[in-house]
Specification:
heterodimer, A: 228 residues, alpha/beta, Pectate Lyase C-like, eleven-stranded mixed β-sheet, 2 helices, B: 296 residues, Glutamine Phosphoribosylpyrophosphate, subunit 1, domain 1, 2 domains, seven-stranded antiparallel β-sheet, 8 helices, 26% helix, 32% strand, globular
Chain lengths: 228, 296
């Protein structure tokens, strides 16, 4: 059974309270939200398996702190979508604004359109697949997880990067401090194949280049001062 | 934070609805900036005449017979339209400087001037400001609006956006400029004077001064990327154009929408929710350090 919540008649707080309650109580229940009109903080803090479809575009911080739930936005998402996600899947059919998937610990963020600047900033284990392009300063200080970009990346990709893996099929405008291109080994091809399949992305792993940390900034060395 | 909205109509059929559409967009942005609100709107032009928008805290006394007083002083026909604390005086273009000097001498605050542009701005919630000025009833070709969360200067009418520093030019801003005092002094040395302590007015004055020196609006907007320091999303209006630029870091939000009927700008997508045809519009986020411009 699918429950529809209409935001033309239901307050945001009530929508989130309903979803949060259902996430804990009704495993894999389906919810559809209509008339989101770019509202903020939609479907946030879901702690349990739930299937949510938002019919339209959302504002700031949609699907933040998600755990186990599957959330689909049939439109575009504003700044901070799926911020600090722990697990589950968040799919954006349109574009995502700034800092999509920031500080995410786990789960899959699947952006079918483009993502703006600072995509995956400080990611800590999340997998992010962007079918279009990403903006500048993406994966800044990213620590763990995988960022896959089928299109192009903007300036300063992976600045001050830790152990996150970055895969880009298109061009990279520039690499940030301590981010370098790395060899694509079999293990990376296998990993990428799995991620592309999960995201339903039409691309072959061999078309991508891998970027990662040169690990020069891990320890202070005065000779690297210019890199900071 | 601050909230910005802008709407540039491509088709004349929508002109009577411009104020209504802009007001909805402005009110939606209230929680980004509840301190003050304002719009600059480009409405009907009258041949050979210029419109000067002035503000007074004591409009009953200041606007009473103002048209006759100005008419006698400049020896030219003057009409007046009084709306709440604002009045728009229409008079021959060649008398503009003389009239502005006279109005300032009488203690009135000049909001802006131009053959087409009128500016209405006050402190208070956007909904209340819009109601006081009857913004919904206004028609026109394009306009920009702003809801302010004050950061760099006081919550006053003069600190409210939009700012106009040359005829038919206006600017709204989300962000804060860190070199505005230095730039204000540089502009003052060139004879470009600002009327407030506000950082945004410096941004507006910078653009106006570059245009006065011969730059195109596009070139002037490019210049902001080099000469202004800080965070900014600027939206500007001219007599026949509408422009957008964001600083290279671009952390201030911006979203645009375009259909065959209009180009719209807002700080958040929410502001577009009631625009006609938004479901099928091209919606995108303007790139950092990139100038966007439309002209009719």
């Amino acid at each position: 059974m699918t429950t529809t919540l209409d935001m033309a008649t239901t307050e945001l707080r009530e929508v989130n309270t309903t979803l949060q309650g259902a996430a804990k109580a009704q495993a894999n229940a389906k919810y559809v939200i209509v008339n989101p009109r770019g509202s903020h903080a939609m479907a946030c803090g879901l702690d349990g398996a739930l299937d949510v479809t938002i019919k339209g575009s959302t504002g700031y911080y949609c699907a933040g702190m998600n755990k186990e739930a599957t959330i689909t936005v049939e439109g575009s998402a504003g700044p901070g979508v799926a911020e600090n996600m722990m697990s589950g899947t968040v799919t954006i059919e349109g574009d995502a604004s700034q800092y999509a998937g920031a500080t995410g610990h786990g789960g899959l963020l699947n952006i079918k359109g483009n993502a703006s600047s600072r995509c995956g900033i400080s990611m800590k284990g999340i997998d992010i697949v962007v079918h279009g392009n990403i903006g500048h300063m993406s994966a800044f200080m990213a620590q763990k997880g995988n960022l896959v970009v089928l299109g192009d990346a903007g300036d300063a990709l992976g600045d001050s990067l830790y152990e996150a893996r970055l895969f880009v099929r298109g061009s990279v405008k520039s690499l940030g401090a301590d981010c370098i291109e790395k060899e694509m080994r079999t293990e990376h091809i296998d990993l990428l194949k799995k991620l592309l399949e999960q995201a339903g992305a039409d691309a072959r792993p061999e078309e991508f280049r891998r970027y990662g940390s040169a690990r020069k900034l891990y320890n202070f060395n005065i000779d690297h001062a210019g890199e900071y | 934070m601050c909230g910005i909205v802008g709407l540039f109509l491509k088709k004349d059929e929508l002109r009577p609805k411009l104020g209504d559409m802009l007001t909805d967009m402005l009110v939606t942005m209230t929680d980004r900036g509840p301190d003050s609100a304002g719009i600059a709107i480009y409405c009907e032009e009258t041949d050979g005449n210029v419109k000067i928008t002035v503000q007074s805290d004591t409009p009953a006394a200041d606007f009473d017979d103002l048209d006759a007083t100005v008419c006698a002083a400049i020896d030219a026909p003057v009409t007046i339209k009084v709306i709440d604390t604002h009045a728009v005086l229409t008079l021959p273009e060649e008398k503009e400087a003389e009239a502005i000097a006279l109005l300032e001498e009488r203690g009135l605050r000049i909001m802006g001037a131009g053959v087409s542009m009128e500016i209405y701005k006050e402190v208070g919630l956007p909904r209340d400001v819009a109601a006081r000025f009857g913004l919904r009833q206004m028609g026109g070709s394009h306009g920009i609006g702003h809801t302010r969360m004050a950061t760099e200067s006081a919550v006053t009418t003069m600190g409210a956006h939009p700012f106009s520093t040359a005829d038919d030019q206006c600017l709204v801003h989300n962000g804060s400029l860190s070199n505005h005092n230095q730039m204000r002094r540089k502009l003052a040395k060139k004879g470009v004077l600002t009327r407030s302590e506000n950082d945004t007015e410096v941004g507006a004055a910078y653009i106006s001064s570059r245009i006065a020196e011969g730059a195109s609006l596009g070139e002037a907007l490019e210049g902001t990327l080099k000469d202004l320091d800080g965070f900014f999303t600027f939206v500007t209006g001219t007599r026949n154009g509408f422009g957008v630029v964001r600083d290279p870091i671009a952390c201030k939000p911006a979203v645009m929408a375009e259909t065959d009927d209009y180009v719209a700008f807002a700080s958040e997508y929410r502001a577009f929710a009631d625009l006609p045809g938004i479901e099928t519009a091209k919606v995108w986020e303007p790139e950092p350090a990139t100038v966007y411009f439309w002209e009719r």
